[in-house]
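Hi, here's the filled form for the chain we discussed.

Project: internal
Contact: R.S.
Residues: 245
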Amino acid sequence: MKIDPDSSVDLSIQIASAIRDAIIDGTLPVDERLPSEQELCEHFSVSRSSVREALKRLGAQSLIRTQRGATGGAFVNRLTYAAAHGQQITTSTLLLSMNEVSFSTACEARYALESACARLAAQRRTADHVATMRAEAYKQAQPGLTDEAFCASDVAFHRALVDAADNDVMSYQLAGAVEAMQPLMNMITFSARSRERIVALHNDIATALDDQDADKICELLNELSSYTNSLAESVFAERDALRGQ
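And the returned structure, exactly as it came back:
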């Protein structure tokens, strides 16, 4: 593990990157105890504060865990897709909220990823997945449902479709699309959308899933994508017009 003391990059970031690379390439295997803080200080020729900051960064990424006591220290974590799920949501939410990704790009990615899992979902769906989607669509059709509750139900509906694919890797990748991108899309478009149209599309998607018709699911998702983008365009145009007054 090496760092460049002459680099303009913060030492703690370099140390964290060096340790992360050692974890990824297997030099530091899962459950392996990392060298002590003092040993890391000597290895990298840095101060203890730089090492501690590096370890904090690695801990925040769930790459290491710390244990107290005589046999304690920092250990390489056994990372799972389930454990990384929340981090994926947080990162995607930050990228979108900070305008690092445009609405159209996020929308395109979300529905492309969801369509990609539709074929597996059509093959592997269970009665429970279909029932969950129908229940959420029914909830969305109820008069008096708040915007917040509608948005939460919208996320639950699409999460059930993703879960039907029964693939941990796809579920992880779609966490950023469904639990992060979708709520932010809802925040932008809720004032302009037709709930009736969305509920109708959701009911048709649930029926297509029940029929194991992957092509129909993708067709309906494409329609939902086009509708979502058109809503956003109208909302943004209205905002621009108000700013121009």
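Let me know if anything looks off before we file it.
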